[in-house]
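Structure (tokenized):
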């Protein structure tokens, strides 16, 4: 029997606006961030370098390349502690 695909958790407009502001601030400050992404086990750690509002995606530079992440898949933004 196939496992049912889980739906992404829904968030209200205030949560999404707050997250969007955090993402823009991190991009402007060129700070390394740790993104919790829905459907991905490990957090994505890198620097946000580009926002594509048309596709609603975030480009994150990683140590070994880059990754495009859909905005709605970002569940949380944190700053890594070293």
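Design, position by position:
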């Amino acid at each position: 029997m196939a496992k049912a695909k889980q739906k992404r958790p829904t968030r209200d407009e205030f949560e999404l606006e707050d997250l969007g502001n955090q993402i823009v601030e991190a991009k402007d400050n060129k700070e390394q961030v740790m993104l919790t992404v829905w459907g991905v086990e490990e957090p994505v750690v890198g620097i946000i370098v580009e926002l594509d509002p048309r596709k609603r995606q975030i480009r994150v530079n990683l140590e070994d390349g880059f990754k495009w992440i859909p905005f709605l898949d970002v569940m949380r933004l944190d700053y890594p502690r070293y």
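Reviewer-requested clarification: Strands lie at 32-37, 44-52, 57-62, 65-70, 74-78. DSSP finds one helix and five strands in the chain.
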